[in-house]
Design a protein that fits this description.
The structure is a homotetramer.
Chain A (H helix, E strand, L loop, with lengths): L1 E4 L5 H13 L3 E6 L4 E6 L2 H6 L8 E5 L19 E3 L2 E3 L5 E5 L6 H14 L3 E3 L17 H14 L3 E4 L6 H7 L2 E4 L7 H8 L5 E4 L6 H13 L5 E5 L17 H8 L4 E3 L1 H5 L5 H11 L3 E5 L17 H17 L5
Parallel strand pairs in A: 7-8, 7-14, 8-9, 9-10, 10-11, 11-12, 12-13, 13-14
Antiparallel strand pairs in A: 1-3, 1-4, 2-3, 5-6
Chain lengths: ~325, ~325, ~325, ~325
């Protein structure tokens, strides 16, 4: 931590800062500039971060030198985390396509979709039984009945599945069916829920909050990791910006940045980020080219009757075409798929 | 709902949209422009909102005419909602100052602060026993012990208190002590938690998500209201923007907009929005002038030792000065305080 | 400037940074932490800012300690800048209401408005002869004919006026009529125009870019000041955020922040920031309460026929009511008006 | 245009709206809903957009059905615009790499860079003689001397070049040397400058304002096109968001959206969008995969001595590696390069 003192800070104010740092066994390096005195604090990161340094008289601001997360950082673990669910390995340098309907609506639609995406090359099935909805009057999911259907589809088509969990009280229930728990974008800072999935031994897919910085997203992963669950799959799904031509703005730059900062694997979700089906194909091609570990795509056989997010779902045949160009790029870049 | 068809939409595509609307007993009014056909859908709002109209072929976009929330809207209830906790009325045209430490740290600090803010004119005490923290390594609150201290301070100084709840499993516990439950900014879209506090009969303070639109904030209130709890107090606390000179950007415009759209009372929190103690006084003056129903301010006798957010807490004597100028403005505008 | 080295930076890389700093006569203070080495650079601010330090091998990031602007800063000049145009003093602790039509459309409307706002208490007239419009097909202003009308209104009602200038080639023309030149929000980073008005001896009103940080806004003022023109009046007019319920989000916090950082006076423009006439009154009350040096308000006798921004203009009688409550608050706070 | 009336709008207010529309020869289609009356206006787009409909009593809001720009829209011209400069064709389905130093600093550095990027496959040279700088104290470019050097490099390496123009008074000067004029991100809404380059017969590269919506960007292109200059090359270069891990957020989704809405070609600039050299390679791969017409990349032989933006410039050998993977992807997708 670097503490920049105000131009008119007194000797005594500087000394108070030094004393506070020394009281937690930090070294304080003082550097006197023409206008500002700057104090470098060397010591235990977590302890320094707890100090309310900006509340001390004479302090202009405190600038962190180190990142606030540790366990999920590349500095803590250099080699990539590889997650394995039912034989599918994610993060090992290969490319993982996850696909399926946004929500589980019926056995028929689920099975029809699962069969098609499997055939086109998807290796993990998505589908939700619990849906977070902005309006309390919208369809909220089939709940346990949906999980049962997903488990049946898994057996039928030999694909592990990922499903969202919304409530800390439902973690055990969802984990008893799903191969991977998903934390949705609106729950990325739901610390009670993060803590609970961190105690589970089922891998977790952590979607980026659509209003969260990369640092906050990694902090959320740290919550899970700290509780013991190290199998965390990050998903970039667009952020809220001033632009309204697409639902959100896919932050594709986050992929190489995350790989630099962390050892966790990262997918791109072009469906929820764009909200428009015609954008799924070009964004999927960009995803494999930029170096993501995979994709998650909404597929639905009849989007015009979908109960959730129909405007962004692509048809099974469109998914097959997306997979073809993704495969072409992967091959050109020597990425196993 | 207005459905704008694409320029090249066919007659048949238009007919499909009309049929879908009629299938849910909506009327469809067709208006043929020079380039676009536009369809006005008249019928049950909630049903229309469920239709995936943008997924239909030939549809360019669907533009909602009505707001998505209903129960919390001014159209549903014209007169202002007034909340009463232990004799303190909020939203009746008077101005309510809420103040106290950000977190409960010890009996001593809590009581010292409560005594001072009461004396300066605050009528409701704030103080948290459960703290949501970005980092899992930060101080997380005294939990039930903190609630007990708050209840003691309530008796001692005769002030009702508001305290945050983070987990749906803790709602009953917090409600058994507190006069008002608080949903924090990071939990505004935690639908499991909103539903749970909606089932409580303790009033709820709903802070705006710092990344939420006004419409999403009112939708969150709708979640609570729909479950039966109609005593909802909204708190504007700044939004995330590109500006980093203050922690967040206080959206003061939201106050008159909210009062136009909704019957719920609204406070301003200048402490969390700005993150800097020297900004609390001017923003508090603006809050009463703009027409808010009150203020919520962090006060701490020794901010430089605070465990949470010390940089934004003001001293008891600074709070007294803020109250003086707020009182002057209230008097000039004939607002009871 | 503080240079944070990467965790794996070598001794040689650190030495290269030190050498670069010493080559421009800077002192380099090295502080070795547990993980990172940090180098404090002490020397001439402008020279250090020119160094591409982040391009050097081993450098993680360079954190500026000092603000990038100097001449407009409070450190450079402690007392407030006071601007005087035709006897009206702005920034001397009094409150200055600026009002008038958004654009000059006709002699009749201009004079009718000027008379009304003068009577209600405005001391400076606004009205534009050159309008920047997003669409090239929109009304672009009456040009010199508009300036002539404004000059006539000035004589008739004894009020100085401010008018926008869009093109460096028009600065002399506008300055030959107007008492104050305005740089509009879309031109805040038009450095050719800033330089040109900086060479004029007519005072300049510098609106904040609706996408500019406070620091960028002050940098733009520095451009003008550096050329010799020290009479700069800043106007906060809302910033672009994700919220669409109002046209822009009034950043009211910018007012006390700007007064802390700079000696320049600052107004609030509630009309352009909100884009809605019913918001002008509450935001005007907030403006005087927060400590702004004045207000700038769009007034039009028949907004429904206005050629520009009719939805935000208030009627002359509404302006009189706004002035009444602004005056009440000013009186309560002992601000001359 | 669709006009949504307020719930309590009177018959008379509705009639006033209808009358206004009919006064400009528009048809008004009235649709009476359960709560709101909606009026569809059919007629000349530009005339309707000029009406201050939201200023009329009883109007809730006016929703445009059509896009505000016309000439640059896909509806106006279905086939892609192809720009040709000295035999290089941009927008014809091939991929165009533009590269060079950010600013022209010296003959030596410029020639060294030009030779290297040409050899690696770039077909257009970039390099600026006029630089817009946030601080008035930063290096502002070599001006005409820089243009002369660029013209010499063009002859030596047989590559057309693009250079920025900042001031309407310099358009003729820059156009007398350059093969393409560039409008920088801070000048995207400088309407005086747009108009001036629109009158030139030299093609224009229009960078997206880093705070501009797609619609505003296309409106800026419309300004140029309307004056007669139809050779406009759009460049996506990242937008300002709350994320600070990269300098800006590359809005890669804008590429397919722009191609849907407009016939103009579009490049991606990974250097200015990210501000970090290690991000240039992955973002360049994404650019070709997503369907951009080309790339613009900052290259510098010694970034650590660059006078402008050294942190984002890549070395000539790094550029050659980027080109190799871009070529691999282009080949896999059958894009000529």
């Amino acid at each position: 931590m670097i503490i920049v003192m105000k131009q008119d800070a007194t000797e005594q104010q500087i000394q108070v800062v030094v004393n506070r740092l020394e009281s937690i066994d930090c070294e304080a390096h003082i550097s006197v500039g023409r206008f500002h005195t700057v104090i470098g604090a060397v010591g235990d990161r977590q302890q320094i971060l707890q100090l309310p340094l900006e509340a001390l008289a004479g302090v202009d601001r405190a600038v962190p030198v180190m990142l606030p997360f540790k366990l999920v950082s590349r500095d803590f673990q250099d080699e990539n985390t590889v997650i394995e669910i039912r034989g599918v390995r994610i993060g090992d340098g290969s490319f993982t396509p996850v696909a399926g309907p946004c929500a589980v609506e019926s056995r028929d639609i689920l099975f029809q979709t699962a069969e098609a995406v499997k055939k086109a090359g998807a290796t993990v099935l998505r589908g939700d039984a619990f849906k977070p909805r902005t309006s309390p009057f919208s369809f909220q999911g089939l709940k346990e009945k949906g999980l049962i259907l997903l488990a049946e589809a898994r057996e039928e088509f030999d694909m592990p599945f990922v499903a969202e969990v919304l409530d800390p009280r439902d973690v055990d229930l969802v984990a008893s069916y799903a191969d991977m728990l998903r934390i949705g974008t609106r729950n990325m800072s739901n610390f009670a829920l993060l803590t609970e999935v961190g105690r589970s031994d089922t891998p977790v897919m952590l979607k980026r909050g659509f209003t969260a910085t990369l640092e906050e997203w990694l902090n959320a992963a740290e919550y899970i990791y700290k509780e013991g669950n190290q199998d965390i799959l990050m998903v970039e799904r667009g952020i809220r910006t001033f632009e309204t031509a697409s639902r959100n703005t896919l932050d594709i730059t986050a992929v190489p940045l995350l790989k630099e900062l962390s050892h966790l694997p990262v997918l791109i979700d072009p469906s929820h980020s764009s909200g428009k089906r015609q954008l799924v194909a070009p964004l999927s091609r960009a995803a494999v080219a930029v170096g993501a570990d995979g994709l998650m795509i909404d597929v639905h056989p009849t989007p015009e009757t979908a109960l959730v997010d129909g405007a962004q779902a692509i048809l099974p045949e469109e998914f097959a075409a997306v997979m073809q160009s993704v495969r072409d790029i992967a091959k050109a870049l020597r990425i196993p798929l």
